[in-house]
Design a protein that fits this description.
binds magnesium ion, 19% strand, 138 residues, 4 strands, alpha+beta, binds adenosine-5'-diphosphate, globular, single chain
């Protein structure tokens, strides 16, 4: 069993896609063990995406991620990290496989509906960034 962090980004929340995204997780054996809606400050978004701070899109990305409420979730399941990345699709929605969340709903490379941890190390960091132990069902 593995855990991963998912975020339904501001575009997904604003467009009414929370239920749609969660349905895909639940239909694919990813169990929700923590969930909340938050509205990040720019500084909180910068801390979350610190790994990308040298990238040219960092400023725009952190503006976007602090532009409206997001839903953060911890998903648990077998190979949860890879399974979630598979359901999400490629970063660039134009390259994402058919039937993936990004292919079906993303409108720009930046506004791509969902975030998902990309490794066990990042999952640990990202889960700890948003949740304390009392908020996680075990
Ligand atoms: P992923 O979310 O698939 O793990 P990355 O970690 O590489 O992708 O990038 C984090 C987020 O930054 C992406 O989901 C997307 O919102 C944004 N992003 C990535 N690459 C670009 C780019 N070339 N231009 C604008 N935004 C980007
Ligand atoms: Mg990433």
């Amino acid at each position: 069993m593995e855990r991963t962090l998912s975020i339904i980004k501001p575009d997904g929340v604003a467009r009414g896609l929370i239920g749609e995204v969660i349905k895909r997780f639940e239909d694919n054996n990813l169990k929700i063990v923590a969930m909340k809606m938050i509205y990040m400050t720019k500084a909180q978004a910068q801390g979350f995406y610190a790994v990308h701070k040298e990238r040219p899109f960092f400023d725009s990305l952190t503006d976007f991620m602090s532009s409206g409420p997001v839903v953060v979730l911890i998903l648990k399941g077998e190979n949860a990290i890879a399974k979630n990345r598979e359901l999400m699709g490629a970063t660039n929605y134009k390259e994402a496989a058919e039937g993936t969340i990004r292919r079906d709903f993303a409108t720009e490379i930046e506004k791509n509906i969902v975030h998902g941890s990309d490794s066990p190390g990042s999952a640990d960091f990202e889960i700890g960034y948003f949740f304390n132990s009392f908020e996680i069902i075990c």
